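Hi support team,

I've been running sequence recovery on a batch of backbones for a student project. Most finish fine, but this one hangs at about 90% for roughly twenty minutes before it completes. I'm not sure whether the input is malformed or the queue is just slow. I've pasted the structure tokens below so you can try to reproduce it. Let me know if you need the job ID as well.

Thanks,
M.K.
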């Protein structure tokens, strides 16, 4: 089984490279952008992802990449098609495979269980839709939902019987076991029965608009839980999907923002009120994977519109603390009177009510401070201390330039009426505390504690090396990656170390690039790739020798920086000797790239 999966992965990687070789990137991009020649193998045009008057969007056929130096959007043929059409990688792959005549490995032979499960779920949806009438439909109408909203989101009803869906699926040639695997049936002591009974059903769709699960709301107060979800399957992982995402994707792209709510009714209600960019989480808060979905839909602003209770406040803060959330402008939406968005459908001015709430939404800094200071007397020293403790995790950033942290510091200074020196001393003590712990055996590994200028220099040098590796032929890529790893010894926690790990475990350059896009670093990597000069393959080793020497120099400089800091607190002859040896190593590397 494992060998079969590895073979399929290898075949998929080969198919991707074959598609790329048959579909010139300038031909694909040229269908959407008026391109003009800009040098050998290069074209330029107006960016399709943002408004501009001067062309900053470039296509490089040699590298197989396109990139906008203005809005930082770009990638290979698959990434471009995903972004321009608002689709997922799988759909982009299938479209280009069909156009270039490449057969994908999973298309061979008998249809697999994935498609069978999708068919079962479609049949279940047909059954639920056919039964939406009477009290179930009246309930939705009392909630203020229009017939158009019910149709758009495919709401249905699971009758109270124990075997209605079971019999319906049987009549369609679906076995009870297949219904069980799809999550719409249950089994107990060998007896199969319907999972959802006397409940309003909400189909959950993946980004390709395929039904992959259901959430069902009880109509009777005696039925618990209030909301019942399909079990997680290979198709359905709650943290990977957002409710109403397919319906909201175009609205997100057009507005540049996403409104994130807790409840499914809330999302539908906002769409009905005209806020077509609304989506709902399927858990307690926004996950990193869900945030990546919104990033791929071109959202630059997140409006977190969770409930006003304690759970809602906790969900908002958890979402703000996501690493990827730092790539958005984030706001917290607070509705008057603690109302949920779903309740606004019953108000005559519901649309205006929510628009006012959006306009009054608190920026991340304001929200964090208000939540930390809620119920406290900021004139008291101990209460100021509690605010600082609550905000400390966000204030102690490892990033050299974090605009949210700088604004949050300013808010703390004004809100707590603190002298700047007091706050900096407090944070300095916090950084010292966070650094205490088990010592690493190799001083070079502690790169995260270096000066910001050296950290940035290291990152730029690592990107230079990575850009050279991307010029290597696909079949030689992993081999050259190992060569670089053996000659640079990238410290743990660095970008290059992670790149090497991804190169060893992933199949092909394209997947490695997607790995870093998912981390939110794809734009910077593509920026360097597009700017790096083109060279003959025969000159690769010479270029790498220079780039690696410059990179090792920075690694030694980081080590030297740490050794000098240690010398101030723990002076010794051994440390002086090690400093001298490190300085000699730096000079040796400089001689390599200066000769």
């Amino acid at each position: 089984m494992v060998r079969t999966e590895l073979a399929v992965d290898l075949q998929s990687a080969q198919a991707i490279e074959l598609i790329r070789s048959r579909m010139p990137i300038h031909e694909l991009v040229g269908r959407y952008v008026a391109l003009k020649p800009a040098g050998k193998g290069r074209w330029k045009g107006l960016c399709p992802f943002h408004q501009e008057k001067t062309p900053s969007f470039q296509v490089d056929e040699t590298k197989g990449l396109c990139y906008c130096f203005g809005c930082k959007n770009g990638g290979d043929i698959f990434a471009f098609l995903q972004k321009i059409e608002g689709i997922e990688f799988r759909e982009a792959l299938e479209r280009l495979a069909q156009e270039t005549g490449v057969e994908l490995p999973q298309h061979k032979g008998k249809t697999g269980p994935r498609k069978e499960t999708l068919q079962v779920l479609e049949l279940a949806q047909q059954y639920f839709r056919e039964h939406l009438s009477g009290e179930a439909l009246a309930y939705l109408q009392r909630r203020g939902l229009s017939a158009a909203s019910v149709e758009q989101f495919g709401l249905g009803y699971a009758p109270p019987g124990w075997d209605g869906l079971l019999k319906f699926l049987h009549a369609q040639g679906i076995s009870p076991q297949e219904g069980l695997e799809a999550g719409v049936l249950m089994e107990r002591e060998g007896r199969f029965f319907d999972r959802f009974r006397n409940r309003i059903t909400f189909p959950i769709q993946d980004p390709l608009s395929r039904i992959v699960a259901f959430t069902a709301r009880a109509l009777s107060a005696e039925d618990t839980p209030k909301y019942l979800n399909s079990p997680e399957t290979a198709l359905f992982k709650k943290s990977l999907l957002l409710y109403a995402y397919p319906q909201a994707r175009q609205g997100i792209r057009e507005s540049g923002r996403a409104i994130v709510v807790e409840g499914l009714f809330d999302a539908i209600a906002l769409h009905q009120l005209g806020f077509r960019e609304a989506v709902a989480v399927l858990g307690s808060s926004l996950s990193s994977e869900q945030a990546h979905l919104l990033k791929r839909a071109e959202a630059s602003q997140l409006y977190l519109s969770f409930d006003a209770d304690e759970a809602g406040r906790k969900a908002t803060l958890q979402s703000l603390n996501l690493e990827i959330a730092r790539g958005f402008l984030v706001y917290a939406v607070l509705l008057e009177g603690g109302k949920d968005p779903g309740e606004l459908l019953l108000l005559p001015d519901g649309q205006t009510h929510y628009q006012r709430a959006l306009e009054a939404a608190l920026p991340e800094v304001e929200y964090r401070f208000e939540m930390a200071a809620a119920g406290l007397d900021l004139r008291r020293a101990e209460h100021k201390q509690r605010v600082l403790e609550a905000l400390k995790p966000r204030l102690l950033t490892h990033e050299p330039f974090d605009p949210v942290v700088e604004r949050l510091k300013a808010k703390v200074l004004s809100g707590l009426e603190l002298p700047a020196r007091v706050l900096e001393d407090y944070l300095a003590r916090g950084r010292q505390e966070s650094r205490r712990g088990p010592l690493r055996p190799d001083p070079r590994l502690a790169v995260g504690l270096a000066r910001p200028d050296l950290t940035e220099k290291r990152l730029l040098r690592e990107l230079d090396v990575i850009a050279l590796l991307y010029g290597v032929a696909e079949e030689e890529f992993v081999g050259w990656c190992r060569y670089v790893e053996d000659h640079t010894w990238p410290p743990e926690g660095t970008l290059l170390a992670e790149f090497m790990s991804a190169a060893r475990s992933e199949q092909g350059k394209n997947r490695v690039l997607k790995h870093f896009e998912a981390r939110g670093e794809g734009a910077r990597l593509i920026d360097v790739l597009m700017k790096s000069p083109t060279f003959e393959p025969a000159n690769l080793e010479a270029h790498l020798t220079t780039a690696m020497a410059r990179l090792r120099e920075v690694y030694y400089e980081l080590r030297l920086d740490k050794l000098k800091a240690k010398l101030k607190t723990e002076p010794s002859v051994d440390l002086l000797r090690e400093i001298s040896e490190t300085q000699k190593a730096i000079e040796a590397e400089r001689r390599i790239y200066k000769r």
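--
Follow-up from support: It reproduced on our side and the slowdown came from queue contention, not your input. The chain has five domains: 1-100, 113-236, 240-360, 370-435, 454-593. No action needed from you.
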